[in-house]
Amino acid sequence: MNHQYYNVIGVMSGTSLDGIDIARIELVRTDSWNFQICERKCVSYSSQWHDRLKDITLLDPDKIHMVNQQYTELLAQCINDFIIEHQLTNILAICSHGHTATHDPVNGHTLQIGNLSQLARLVNHRVVCDFRVQDVTMGGQGAPLVPIGDRLLFNEYDYCLNLGGFANLSYEQDDRRIAYDICAVNVVLNHYARQLGREYDDDGAFAKAGTPHTPTLEKLNALPFYTLQAPKSLGIEWVNENVFPILQKLTDTKDALATYCAHIAIQISKNIKAGSKVLVTGGGAFNTYLIQLAANKSNVNYHIPDEKLINYKEALIFALLGVLRLRNENNVLASVTGAKRDHCSGMIYLP
């Protein structure tokens, strides 16, 4: 494709389960890539869908397949409602990540539901989706995929830090993009916030009211994952097996939140050089207590952008991945996933 202007819709659902992010994105390719986040919306999950997605790893393959079909229909409905609500026309493509159901790259498996071919028919638009599977078949982690967007759209920063379901980091080193998951964030914090009657810990108020438990913090910091070299990535399975068993021994939920926020801040500080300029996005960027804890650990300039970019950066970047796929250009970097080479990933479905 020789277009230099792309009017697309980016769709993303993260592991923090806060909802489906949908945004119309304008991408322009001149000497470099430029973007504008236009209309956008986060469609919150119903309690039924939240519980279904939270526990999806416990289901057998047949039931996961059924949920996949139902989730594809849910995505289509949300996308169609978004298009109608904003009276959108001339959409080149819907670029959708789907929702990660299972992720086990060591054993050659990753599954993002909502990427079935009927999505294109249901939304009556070209769809580009399913970006991770090809990378896993090529020996990669299938994650992270966002760093190509960090390189092309945000190269004025030393690091791009995303605080979503997991914290992940992206930066340039010797003309190679390096990126990896640091630790779990909102998949843990939101879990405990819900025990206190909230969907998330607003500004870290619950954590701030608690007291970090030093022995628990030491156990968390000693988890073997943190000593592994990149590329490396995390999934909810790892959290269930490693993090929750440590934290569940704390009887006070606010203490659990305080302890885990301290843990996140320590792990972030270990991975960012002093004096760096860091772009922070994802829901965790709104957690002022967490950001302050991280800032107290080292001399780093954490830049918190406007709400649009905080909330919709991943929808933006998956829109870019879709456009790169349509241009037949590499959109996955082997330096961050561990695949045998850079490659152009994603399935294209027509209505």
Automatic annotation (TrEMBL):
Keyword Kinase: yes
Lineage: superkingdom: Bacteria
Gene3D superfamilies xrefs: 3.30.420.40
Transmembrane segments: none
Single Gene Ontology BP annotation: peptidoglycan turnover
Pfam families noted in UniProt: AnmK
Keyword Kinase: yes
A GO term, aspect molecular function: phosphotransferase activity, alcohol group as acceptor
EC number: 2.7.1.170
Alphabetically ordered keywords of this record: Kinase, Transferase
PANTHER family from the UniProt entry: ANHYDRO-N-ACETYLMURAMIC ACID KINASE (PTHR30605)
Name of the molecule in the record: Anhydro-N-acetylmuramic acid kinase
Source species: Nonlabens ponticola
